[in-house]
Every structure is written in structure tokens, then in C-alpha cells.
Records
---
Amino acid sequence: VRLTGGDRNTPVPARFEVVPQIDTPALVVDLDQLQRNIDSMADATRAAGIALRPHAKTHKSSDIARLQLAAGAVGLTVATLGEAEIFAKAGFDDLFVAYPVWPSRSAVARLHALSERVRIRVGVDSDAGLSKLADVGVAVLIELDCGQHRSGIPPHDVVRLGRACERAGLEVSGVFTHAGHSYAGPEAVARAARDEVEAVAAAVCALERAGLEVTVASAGSTPTALLSATGPVNESRPGTYVFNDRQQLALGVCELDRVAAYVAATVVSNNVDGRFVIDAGSKALAGDHPPLLEGFGSLPGWDDAVVTALSEHHGTVREPASGGPRVGDTVAVVPNHICTVVNLFDRFVVVGGGELAGTWPVTARGR
Ligand code: PLP
């Protein structure tokens, strides 16, 4: 039994053709491809002479984080205190929360507890709350806005915030930025990578001229990671690269043979001409719908089959002109954005060498 029915349509990589015996919908990870993705990013950052601190919000998995550290990652990036707590408990002792953490009373207590067991640093992008962070004794990285215009400050403002940290008694380890605007389209990627390097270079230069020491100059998204590993950038934080997804395919960041995770689904209904229904809806595929993409996922091996609509438990798929799978067939769906999909599942179904190899918990799910 083949997941894709690839024999009836375009050829698909062998790993999409396995595991008929799993309950669907399921989040499947291909161990061999996962390891290749982990190794190639580790090799590339090592060759560029910079540290790799992968973003663990993509996989939320201590099993996968262990593989990343074994391949040479210096520590983990996380998005939330909840993720930091889970990874600290699992034994990861060098964590960076790449987020402007608001030091509420509860956050201060949690940070305090974390800082007693692991090395933990957090992002800041305003002078509000600095003294509360100083009380905890964590070091910070100042977030720079390099063009996404989400969080972060413009590089020309970095000395002002650096001095405010100094006055509050807060140790500044350096700066970080994220080129989220690289996701606008294939033509945006190289420009966004240059924006990252330029923002980091301007900030490092200004801080050093002002006599403020910079040890960490951190950049990186999956689309830009290899391009921005240069200049004063000395750390990269890609996350999605471990699995890749339909967005990375559309951006030209990878080919289908680099996709290491997908949602396995069963065709459950086929009563309307030109479409069929799978048992993966918004509670399995998530609802991310970047402007770059049509629909919510694609089915490798089934020509232009695209998930065009989602209910909670139904995914409506446009049937290829050359014919689609039959009711009862299992298909693989490459989702638009794998990070939000992972957070919908309790576990990964792990496939290795074309065989079912077991399951891994999504350790920090919901955190
Ligand atoms: N750093 C920060 C601050 C992020 O927000 C993200 C992703 O959202 C990343 C790193 C990782 O980027 P990517 O998902 O493109 O690998």
C-alpha cells in the first residue's frame, strides 16, 4: 500500500510511500531525511564558522533537539517560557528565548526558577520592565527589526536601549534579529538575508563604538540561514529546516526530497465531481494560509492536488484531472507551515528505512 498512490501519477520520493498501518490523521517524520536536514545545516554553519542554535518551536521535541545537539548545535532557541521549562527539564542547559518576554510576576518567578538550573537568556526590545529582568539576573539580547516590522528596534536605536539595560543592571550579551520578511516570496529571500546582516553589522558597530561589549550576534530563519551566515553574524537560529514544508518549497529553499515531515490522511469521501475529502482538517493541517500559496497543503504524487478548504475534521482536495486516490486510500499531505501543525499532534510517527520505527512525543506541545 502506498501513501500517495504515486504509481498512478508523478513519481514521488520513496518515503512518501510507506506505513499503511497507522491511524490517520498522523504526523509522520522520516528519520533518514530528518537526519540529513540536521546534518546539512550543522555542516553549513560549521563551514561558515558560526554557531547553530536551532529554533525548537518547530519540533517541540526533545528527541529531535538531542539529534541537533549531537550534530553540533550549541544550544536551543525557544519561543516561550513553557518551551524553555520543558527543554530544561529534559536536560538542555543552554536556552535562548528569542522573544520580548514581558516580566509579569509569574514570568519573573518562572525565569528565576529556570536560571537556577540552566543558562537562560531572553530577548528585549523596550525599556519597560528592564529592572524586573535585572532582578532575575538573566542576560538579554536586544532584538533588532531588520525589515519584518514585527518586534525589535531599528539598529540606530540600539545604543539607547543598551545603555538603559546597563542602568538597570542587566547584562547584554548581544543582539538578535529574524528576517521574517524573507517569507514574502522567492525574490525576497536574498534581500532579507542582506537586511539581517546589515542590521546586525550596524548594531554591533554602534554598540562597540559606545564601549558596550557584544558576544552574540544572532540572525537566521530557514530561508536566509545560509545567506546571512557572514560578517559579524556569529550565530544562526533556523527552525523549520529540520522538516521543511510547502512554504519552503514555494520559496525555492528546498525540493520535495528535503521534506522530512508530512500529515498522513485517509480519503474518506468522494461524492462531488472534481474533489475528494480526507480526514485531515484544520485540527490536523492548521489554518496557516500565506499569500504565496493556494490552499492549505499539497499531495505529492497527485499532480496538482491541493487542499482547497478545511473544516475541523474534513480537508477538501481538488482532484487531479488525471484522477485521484480512491476512498480508503492513504495519502501524504505536505502542509503549508509545519510548525503550527506539529503543535496539533501529541506524537510523531517515526519512519526509518521505509519501516515504522516507533513514536516520539511532541514534548512541548501546547507550551
Ligand atoms: N527566530 C525567530 C525570532 C523566529 O520568530 C523564528 C521563526 O518564526 C525563527 C528564528 C526560525 O525561523 P524559521 O521558522 O524560518 O526557521
---
Amino acid sequence: MNAGRGLPDVEIIAVGSELLTPSKVDTNSLWLTERLNALGLEVVRKSVVGDDRARLEAAIRAAFGQGKIILLTGGLGPTEDDVTREAAAAALGRSLSFRDEIVEWLEKRFARFGRKMADINKRQAYVIDGAEILPNPNGTAPGQWIEQDGIRIALMPGPPGELKPMFEAEISPRIQAGLEPAAIRTLVYRVVGIGESDLDQLIAPVYTKYSNPMTTILAAVNDIQIHLRARCPTAEDAEALVAEVGRKIEPLLGDRIYSRDGSPLEVIVGRMLHDRSATVAVAESCTGGMLGERITSVPGSSHYFAGGFLVYTNAMKTGLLGVDPDVLAKHTAVSDPVARAMADGARERTGSTYALSVTGIAGPEGGTEEMPVGTGFIGISGPNGTDARKFRWVGDRRRIRHAAVQSALDLLRRRMIF
Ligand code: AMP
Ligand code: MG
């Protein structure tokens, strides 16, 4: 795909045996991919390789290809198990040279912290012949950049706090220097209330016609992001191109699109409340405070969030919100009338403009044939009356609770649109 657009393919190799255990995740490649995509480049392959010289050498060779950019992270430390320098040198058929200036720099760095450099740190002074040395202001391992036979290779340290500044200061400018001058424009849609495969079925016929802009779909719980990223000679062209594709996608999704600037739902809803000088209160059962947490995670939410009620038991629903015990007995706590009564009670007791309620079966126990796990009701009370909607959220307890919060925020958003 990159090749079709005259752009180099990028491959990432994360080095470190700890990244092959269940307790440590390779987050560097995710961060790098995000940065590369922002330049309009695509990562075509990535891998995680343990601290093994021969395997790493083989992985680097396997990544070779005309015009390729190969980014390595990790394995530049001072210990025996840090083998990236040796493996890359071997893959390129080059030798390593000891560089006095690096030792001097390392000694100064240690002295600045009032320590003496250990002898093993001298391992970090080996540089692949012909490589540029990339300074590392945040650690002891310098990076390296080598160009050979149309391939560009970067060696970067593993700690994220060292990798990120080095990529921004040293690698990103070198990558961009090899690209045609271009402007990049990204349009981000965020969508709620539709599943990933349904969404893709709707919009794939549009976006698959274009390799520029590049389309990425990121699905979270009841929250999908669509990124359209155009790379053009001028900013006007790039803007026009994302707008062209956006104009075809928007009518297919309609008001399920809640954001066009990347803002999450709680921010969008907060803005809408603020613009209307309205307030909201919440009454939560199965989400146990998560809805209030989402709303109040936004700075400035004190202007529109009245407060909330955490009412798990029937007694609390009655005691705090005035839900009629007969209604609870007749319909059960997870029902349309109870969701309405909870919302009404929260609105009356706080004097807020709107109130949302959540009641549902988050599981894993408590489901019945009629009311399986994931069944829930969101109630909304506002100036135009009271309403409740039934939902069937899917997934485990965590997903169900997240989906419920998202549905509640969306119900309020829809109430304010119309
Ligand atoms: P190294 O450069 O291999 O000595 O890595 C030093 C430390 O950086 C490791 O112990 C990890 O904690 C962290 N690290 C290395 N690679 C990664 C990666 N791909 N993603 C996140 N953290 C990493
Ligand atoms: Mg390591």
C-alpha cells in the first residue's frame, strides 16, 4: 500500500525477552506506529524478538527490502543480554568500532550524577561502521542510524522515556528528509451505537476505493474511531481529499457520529450541557459510579454535573430516589419503569436539568432466559419528559459496564440534539 503511494514501507522490531512474557507489553511499537501514521507512513510488519543474537540477526535480515525503513527498539543496554548492536552489525555485514567520544560522554554523564561509570557501560560505546551516532539525553544508550543499499535502519533504546524523545529529535526528521514534501491532514470521526462489523459493512464500499486517504478503524467498547489520513503535496489538497471521503461516509452513519475532532463522548456531552446552561445528575446501579466518573473526568464538569446516587439495592433505590417498592416488586430492578423512576428521582432531588439512570445485569451471574446477562435499561428525565431504553450489551462484566456508560452518555447527547 505504501509502495503504491511512492512511500517507504516501515518495519518495527522490538527487542527484549521480557516482551515475550505475559507481564510486559511492547508499547513502543504502538507509539511508533502512531507517529509514523501521522507522517502518512504505514507499518507493514512488526515483530518481537528475545535477547538472542542469532535470532535477531535473522529477523533483521528478513526485514531487508528495497526502500525499507527498519526501526529497532531495545537491547542497547550495557549488559550481556543486550545484543542489538552486534546483531545489526552482523546482518549488515559490518563491524563494530569502539568510540572514545561515547565513553567520554558516558563518563561525564555518570560524573554529573556523582557516580563512577561501571566497566560494562563501555559496551554502549560500540558503533556500527558507517552509522551516525544519535545522542540520548535521557539515558546511557546512544542510538544509531545506518543507510545501506536503499535500506535505512534505526537502533533506539527500549525505555519509552528515551525512545520517544530520540524518535522525535533524530529519527523523524531523517525519515521525513527522504520523503517528497507533503502535507498531512487527518479527519477523525467517533461513532457510538453500532458494532464494528456493521460499521465496516456500511463504509467499506467507500473507503476501500481510496489508498489516499488511508483509513484506519479503531474499535473500543461501544465507541469506534474512524481515521482518514490524506497525504498530498499541499495542505489544501489534503484537506479537500479527506473532506471528499468524509462527505461520503457521514450520511451512511448519520447521528451515530458524535465527534469530528477526536473528542470522547463525555467531552462532547459536557460541551452540549455547557452550551445549553444545563446540568445533569446520575443514578447508577450496575455501573457503580462509572458514569459519574466519566462525566467528572472532564475538567470544568463542575459547571454542569449536579451529582449522583449509587443505588445498588432496592432499599437504596427507594430510600434515596423514592422508587415505589410496589413498582420494584412488580417489574424487578432491571426494568423500564424502574429506570424511569430512578431518573425522575435523581432529577427531582438534585434540581438538575437532566438525569440519567442505569440499571442492568452486568453478570456473570443473575441472567435469566428472559433477561440474559447484558440486559439493561437507561432512563433519562428532562424538560421534555421521561424516557427509558432497553439495551442488550455484549461481552464480559467489564465490557457490559463500559458499554452501559457509553449508552447512557449517548442517550443524553441524542436528547440534546433533538
Ligand atoms: P533495553 O533497551 O532493552 O535495555 O530496555 C530497557 C527497558 O525498556 C526494558 O526493561 C523495558 O522495561 C523497556 N522496554 C524495552 N522495550 C520496550 C518496548 N518495546 N515497549 C515498552 N517498553 C520497552
Ligand atoms: Mg532489553
---
Amino acid sequence: VSLERFLTPENARTVVRAWQREGLTVGFVPTMGALHEGHLSLLRACATECDRAVLSIYVNPTQFGPNEDLEAYPRRLDEDCELAERAGANAVFCPTDKLMYPSGYATFVDQTGMTEVLEGLHRPGHFRGVLTVVCKLLNCVPAECAYFGQKDFQQTVVIRRMVADLNMGVEVRVQPTVREPDGLAMSSRNDYLDADQRRDALCLWRALQNVKKRYAAGENAAAAARQAMREVLAQVPQASPDYVDIVDCDTLERVDELTERAVAVLAVRLGGTRLIDNLPMAGDLPPGRAKN
Ligand code: PAF
């Protein structure tokens, strides 16, 4: 594999800055590895739209809660590097925990409001870890644009907020969720599902589609749509929802009406696996979010 590997922040920054001095544009795709089609679609967009495409592979410990799946999270660096290169990546940044969080590390990015709802309620501290590492990664790989998947909808919203609030000057580009043929959103955590859970996991997609159908039919009451989502999930006794909601695409506030700004969101536990998914009423990319 001829994909260039950046092992230290200095190494990454030096090469990225040199490319930029040559007049090349640099795009960045932060990941935690275990790459699937969703990640590869981000990389392909990045490689098409920018002169150089860099990805990071780093399982960031600060975004996992004490009882979460940090240890179990799939790690397959060599295979990931091959996939990334085939998708058009020029370089990968794969730092160690010691480099990212050396002893004495003391600085975190805290965002109020939108980090405290939905995922934030159920995974306290999660977005503090995500925003901290994304800020750090963007300091290591100072790209012009950064790519994120719509699958982690709330993450895209709070990252946009951070980038604006901290004047980070990077353009955030969101790409549509990539799904299995039966509708299940691609996720590294799908690896944890056994055959029965894999079948049961389709209830997320069924619940989301139910909302979209109501919207398409002109039924605009969000409360009824939320109730219908819960009823779809209840048909699978093993599925235990953490939350089921319909929120505004920019503010994450609960909406009363289904409009093109509404996004249906949910998190569901199946055995030990926690899956999230979402569906914007406006289509894959909510208004104002289309990439350039
Ligand atoms: O979406 C992810 O994989 C992670 O949250 C990210 C953005 C790479 C930060 O660790």
C-alpha cells in the first residue's frame, strides 16, 4: 500500500501545509476506522472534490462512556488502509493515545445546549469527547474542508456549531447516509449484531420510513408521527429505544409539525448493541446542507 502514513501531528501538519503552499486543496475525513461503505463514500467525495484526501483513523477514548464499547470497538488498521487507498485517499493520520492525550492533558471543548439533548442525554460527555478530538484532528490536519456522514446527524450539527463558534474556518461537508439494500444504515457497530438482531435492527428503518410516508401524505402532526414510530419499534420486543423524536435540522428542538426542516431521529438498543439512525423529511441532505 503506497498510502502515506502520518504518525505524528507535526508530520501531518507539515505535509498538509506543504501541499497547500503548492496550491493544492486538502480535504479531511475523520474516522474511527473499521471502514465501511459509509466511510468510503465520504472518502470518494473528498478525493473527487479536493486535490488531496486525508483520513484519520483513531478510536478516540474521550468520546466513550465508562460502560461503553471502547475495548470492543473493531480495529483493523491494515485492511482500512487498503480500502482507503482504493477509495482515493492520499494519506492517513493514525495517532496513538499517548500522542493525542499525553500525560498532563487538560483541555476540552465544551458546547452547551445542543450537546445536551438526544445522544447527549444518553451518552453524557460523548460530544465533549467528539468536539475535543475533532478540534484537535483539524489542528493536526488543517484541511480546507472536512467530511462527515449524515448518519451521525447530531454530531454534524454540533460540529458545525463548534466550527462557527471557534472561527475554525474549515468547511463542513455532510454526505448522505449509506444503507444496506434492506435499509439498515451502515455502521461499524453493525458488526456486533447476530443474525436475529440483524433482522430486528430493521425496525429503525421501518420507524423512520413511517414518518416519511406520513409527511409525503401531508399528515403533519409530529406528535402522532412520534407515537407511530414508537409503535413500529414496539413490534420488536427485543428493541429497547433510548429515544425517538422529530427535531429541527438546525436547532435540534422538538418540532410540532412535520415540515422540510424536520428530521426523525432515534437510538435503539438491541441486546448489548446501540444503534442510531435518522431521516430528514427534506431528503438525504436537509435544506442548506447540500455540499458545494
Ligand atoms: O464519527 C466518528 O467516527 C467520530 O465521532 C469522529 C468524528 C471520527 C470523532 O472521533
---
Amino acid sequence: VFSKVTPALVDRLRAIVGAGNVELDDLEPYSHDYTEDFRFPPEVAVRPRTTEEVARVVRLANDALVPVTAQGGRTSLSGGALCVHGGIALSLERMNRIVEVDAENLFAVVEPAVITQALQEEVEKRGLFYGPDPASRGSCTLGGNVAHCAGGPRALKYGVTKDWVTGLVAVLPSGEVIRTGGKLMKNVTGYNLTQLLVGSEGTLAVVTEITLKLIPLPKFRRTMLAPFPDLVSAARAVTRIFDARIVPCCVEFMDRAAVEAAEKRKAASFPAKGAATLLVEVDGNDEALLEREAERVGEACVAEGAPDVFLAMDEEQRRFIWDLRRSIGEAVKSLAPYKEEDTVVPRARLPELVAAVEEVSRRHGLTAVSYGHVGDGNLHVNILKLGVTEEEWRTRVPAAVREIFERTLALGGQITGEHGVGYVQREFLPMAYPEHQIELMRELKRVFDPKGILNPGKILPDGSERRPFGRRG
Ligand code: LAC
Ligand code: ZN
């Protein structure tokens, strides 16, 4: 159905972005993301510098019926920016300028390839704060964060990417440019296209500029580790913390295997750990109040069975703990081929979810490693290919994944909280929504992208290539 990239098209791409920014040889970096198991090389990669160049490239591709997939840091865990139909990888890597930090109105305007952590550090220098902090913040881009509505540990108190985006410049498949919102805290002028594009995984438009709100940087933090004798009591402690009417900025959950994977990878050890461990951070501007909150968090954990609670003594210890936590994703994946579910439930249902995951994986004879942002009810469940034959893996995993999703949905949850449907979960979308709702999404896609050239093969279960498991799986 799609056309191939021809030499004539390559010439026209060179005319738009310059010959040095059209890559035909080294396509390896553009062929994979953090799902690791998949390799989908594009036919060509282009590196535009401006919105105008993006618009010209996209229009060209649309006219020629060639797929275009926008790419940022390629840290997706759902295959969101993989060129599954080949075509053009539209790498936005050169669009990496912080256009403006407006300290008067408290907004930042950025190009899509700004690394999330780079923006955070830039605004923090001025006593300002940008909330979302995906675990990959040192390598993911704000454009990618917008595409997937990235979350991360601090989402609990500060929200996810969508809560910070107030405006976008985006290129439609026709090559037309739209501007949604701006440096506006309020704006109800027509349909909310800003929020429709956030989380649309690059399937509707290519975002080329982002306006983000900022807030003053919270002054103080306390970071704690609480070990628990079992998974369910750790999950219960989360509810107890909220019962004490405390909203920490992060409540992270790690099971023993997740902790050990990170320790092995980093050749370092967590100062406290149990069958399950909670990492809790509180922040704010009143140090005395914070001390009291930290104490009450500690009490809540002890009441649910934590023998003691470790408090990070200084910024160095805090960084050390977070560094270990942030490495879990990569560490777990390096243990074995895996299938990840990014489950999310209402927070108070978390003990039930944790118990269900344990029960389902045990019954199917599978190894599941779980960690995540339990303060948000968001649990990353990784089923690892350990101690099973090829045949067992093939048959057991799909059944177990379906059951985990069924149980998640029955708890009022959803099948992905922050990693997106992308390529790897789209066959499960019919579990999440009835057909008429998926059809509504298909219609939306058609309105934006009638020829279907923009990041094809994502989100919607079009069934054209059903390949739920990885190359190694
Ligand atoms: C994390 C990523 C995998 O929480 O979302 O580490
Ligand atoms: Zn996460």
C-alpha cells in the first residue's frame, strides 16, 4: 500500500534539509528504541532543522505515499517511533534548542529534541521547575514526552506531560502548520487540539515546538527507602500514606528482583531493601512541615510491616538512590527477553493488582518482575523468559498477559499508564475499548492523516502485522 523511497525522492529530501542531513548508510540508530527486541530500519533518515523543513518533508512524503515516522531520543518502551513500514525516519535531533525560558510568565518554549533533563537543569538554575521526570530523562526528549504523554516518578504530585503542555506548533501530513494554545493558563478557544496531540504518539501530526508551563522550584526534599516483607504490605502502605493526607512527590515500588537487577548492573547496593521496597520522596518549601511528613510516612510504612525506614542523609545519598532506581528498567531488560505490561489502576486497588500479578504469573509458571510508580497506581510488570522453553514462552505469555490485563481492567484500570500503546500493545487495544470507540479513534486518524502516512502501524489494531513478541522472544 505504501510506496518506496526512490532516488528521486532522496534528491528532493537533500534539497530540503541539505545532503549532509539525509542518511542512507548508517540507519542502525534509527531502527530501534528501548524495546530493544525490534529492528525496523527506515529506508532513509532525514534530520530537518526547522518547522518549515519538517513541513516540506512531510508534504513530500504525503504526496509520494511514503511513511514518515518522527523520532526523538528513541527511548520508547512500546516501539512508538519504530519505522515498522520502512519509509522516512524524521529524526528531529537537530531541533534541540530551548527557545525561551520566560521567567516572568513562567513558561518555557522548546524545540522537540531538547533532552528532558536539560530543560529541568536550565530552569532550575533560575529557581524554576518542570515536573515530569521520566526514568529516561537523561536521554529522552520533550517531543517524545509529548508524543507519549510521558510520566515518571513525580507524576504523583506534579502530573504527567499533558499537565504541563499549554501549546504546540505541529505539522499536519498535508504540510500545513497548526499552532495550538500558547503561553496561556486558560484557553477554551475551540476544540482542545493541544491535548489531542499529546499522547497521540506521532500518528496525527509532527510536533515542532512545545510551550510548557513552569512553577517555582520546591526548596526542600526528604527521600526515604522502606523495605517490606512482602509485596502486598508495601502496596498497602501506599494507601496508608494517603490516608495520613500526605501527597508525596514520589512513591516508587520495587520488588526484590527489580532491586537486585539494578544493584547488579550498577555494582552498588540499595541501603535498605526487602521482598518489596518503597522509595518515597516528599518535597515542599516548609522544612519543618516536611520533617513531620517524612516522619508520618515512616510511621505508615512501619505500621504495614517495614522493620525500619532509611532516610537519605544528603543530596549525594539521594542521587545515589535515584540513580539506582532509574537504572531498573534497563537492568531488568538485560536479564532476559521480556514482555512488559505498563498496568495502571486506581491507587487503592494496587494491593489487588500486585496480588493478581503474582497469582497469574505463578499459575502460568512464569517469572514476573514488578516495579513502578505505585503512588500513581502505575505498575510496570515485566515477564522474563527465564526457566521456560521456547514453546512454553510462546504459549504461556500471551495467555498470562491477557489475564493480567483482564484483571487490571476489572480493577478499573487501563493497559498502559505511561509507555503508550505504540507497536507492542496495539493488539490489546480491543481489550481496553469497545469497537465503536476504536472506530472513533480510527476516524480521528483519518481526519488528520487521510493517507495514513504518519507513523503507521501504531496504536490502532489494524492487524496488518501481528507480532506481539520480540525478535528474541
Ligand atoms: C521506569 C520506566 C521504565 O519507571 O518507566 O523506570
Ligand atoms: Zn515508569
